[in-house]
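Notes on consecutive records. When two proteins share a document, each keeps its own sequence and its own token line. Never mix them. Below: protein one.
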Amino acid sequence: MKTIVWLGFVLSALSAADEVIKTRVGQSVTLKCGPNPPKGDLSWLHGSVRIFNVNSKFGFPLKGPAAVHSRSKVKSGKDLEITGVKREDAGKFTCMADGKSVEYTLLVVSVSATSTDDFRAGGTAILQCDVNGLGKSPEVEWKRPNESKVLKQAKVNLSSVAPSDAGTWVCTFSHKKVTYSEDLVIEVKGPSTEAPKSSPTQSSKVNPKSCLKCGNNHQSGSGSVKLSWWMWVAVGVGCLVVILLVVFVIVLCKKIRRRKKKLQRMKNGRQSLRPKQFCQCNRPTAAGKPQQGRKKGKPSALPLQPLLKE
């Protein structure tokens, strides 16, 4: 038990002082683990979770289960490089090698400005400054551009954007008696020059007493009237074409029917001129009746003989 306590005391004595590094969301940061490469194994921890373990025998780093390891890598066998920093990457990082440890506190600052009308004069805007990596949120202040006025709040609401709001806004906070800052540039555009849209009911109302030629002006200059006139012409021409097509189809059908009837009559006339052929059956003919003797003819006259006189 005494050996474990003594070893912990030695490690704490050999560990370097906690160094604070500030970065911004989306940027890259490099955490160094001493000036020289370690002779033995090296480990990088995010809080209490091991994210890298460099084995001296194999010579390549083994990634841990932490989410930050997907955006980080070990350079020169000892330094940790994080690309595309996110808010959840903030916190404490520890490098352990050769019985020594180096600790870092990574502060991730995010500044943003949002506007509903593209930062135009007279519109509204919201400025936000967030600091991640500390157990307790520090006091954040905003400094206006070209002014000494300080707004002691992390969120600033601009109810009416003015041209004087354009420029560099500075977000500042303190940690361990050290002041850190992050800049945000805002560009203010001019007010919108779009003419107000009049309602159709108001634009359609015309006072006949105010103008004697209002009807003529509206008919000659209104594009909608011309458009409707051409539309009616197109509709009329289309209807006329459809009617002509229908009439043509009807006449053509009647003509075809008449021609068919005429051809049918001609066929019927030709068939009537031909001799009619009756069906002859192949039945055997009936036997003739037997003759019942020779027909008696008239007896021939006997020759006249002279009468004998007695």
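Protein two starts on the next line and is unrelated to protein one.
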Amino acid sequence: MANVFTDEMSLFIKIFQVMALYPSSFILKIYSLFNFGITIFIFISAFCIFPVLENDNSLSLLVGGLVFVGILLTNLMNITQAFFSVNQQTEIYRKFDQIDLKLANQLLVHTDYKRIRRRLIVKYILLCLVLFVIHVISIVSVTVYGVAFSYYVHLIIPVGVIRLRCIQNMFYVDLINEKLKSMNQKLNDMISRNHDKMAFILFSHKLQKFDVQEKKISSSLYEQIITLKQIYGKIFDVSNLINDVFGWSLLFVVTQYFIEFTSNGYWLFLALENLLEHSFAIQSLCSIFPIAILLTTMANSCFNCSENAQQLGVLIHKIERDINSDLQNALIREFSLQLIHEPITITANGFFSINFTLIGGMAASTVTYLVILIQFQLSEIKKTSNSTVS
């Protein structure tokens, strides 16, 4: 079987290989271990060679250290899981080839990879461009004000890898979404044709000239439903593979982003209250916006994927029942049960689903923890002022 998918999507695959997120060969595995070593060196450098945490505020120092260590640990998890999940990623590519083959040979639905590639390139370039502009503003701010320069320099590579890991996850989810869209479109066409054919059969019944034609119609629809059912099973397998490949990575990334979002919100408050230099306000905003953009985009991709899978369940029930084909009616019920029991859901290792509900929960939790941190800060200021007076 020709590897159409890997050929058409080679640009994205090569980018993932360069960033050690798909070490598919021995040399790339060595390169991945090298990246792992770089992250360890960054950790040692940050705490032993060029100390990055220098702040008179003990609470701010604690929060800064938590964010720094969290980013490095998340980067290590991304590289480690990518290293040990190469076979699963390769299996994803093989499954996509099998799905394309079934769509083309049995349903006459040909995947337009040029259109898909063009759409994904535009989407990811716009996303990366926005993130790059924000990153440039952050670097300029750090360079001009010279505040926490070592802190942000040490995190340039780890932050870049984490963001690309999110885009890699979106890439696979967006491809599943494209397959589900093709299935929905084909099912819509089948419903439309079946409605016209059932009307023809009803008319034929009245003329008592229906035997051979009716059997051909029922056989064709039955085979197409079987094919759709088989393809959905393979898409469900791909979604499980994606959860295996990205489960721990997503758990660490989302947890880290929650900590980082809350911490930068706290630093933004301190900067606005003149308890930190105003440059920290710019740095905090330059960290908050990329997190919000990435999580929202990733949640949108996963949400659309789940919605298109659910749409299949809505459409399958629009197929008119054939009173002369109990086998076909049973197949529709079976397909409907499959859609219920095998939902397409992207999760963080089963702890939570990646969707807009997660974003809402994170926002609510962030506000709660910000209030707690601010109360601690205010009490610390009060203690300092009291000791000064006495």
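For the record: Confidence is low (pLDDT under 50) at residues 209-217.
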